[in-house]
């Protein structure tokens, strides 16, 4: 009976170990344009965020604010039709200054992730 218990316990532990990466997988930011901390010569006309998995459009957004906290975008962010792991936000012409990008997304697992960074326009 002890051998049977050992086999069952080993199988349960192996299943839990294999399932843990799946349970902890959340949408993570892989890249951003403009990049965090970047200084761009010309005004950025779009923020593009690429994640490690497709994101849910209804629960994902980007806002860009100036140094006074004013929202710079007129439209809502949209998930790229060709690649649902990319979230885009069209921007008007930006004056010289520092801007903050704030994002929140939900991956296929339903968990929301948030982040922010800054870039500068010369």
Automatic annotation (TrEMBL):
A Pfam family annotated for this chain is CopC
Q: Which InterPro entries match?
A: CopC-like, CopC/D, CopC_dom, Cu-Rt/internalin_Ig-like, Ig_E-set
Q: Which domain of life is it from?
A: Bacteria
MF-aspect GO terms? copper ion binding
Q: Which residues form the CopC domain?
A: 26-121
> Which keywords does the record carry?
Copper, Metal-binding, Periplasm, Signal
Annotated signal peptide: 1-25
The entry's cellular-component GO terms read: periplasmic space; plasma membrane
User: Which one GO biological process term can you cite for this protein?
Assistant: copper ion transport
Compartment(s): Periplasm
Q: Does the keyword Signal apply?
A: yes
Q: Its family?
A: Belongs to the CopC family.
For this entry, the protein name equals Copper homeostasis periplasmic binding protein CopC
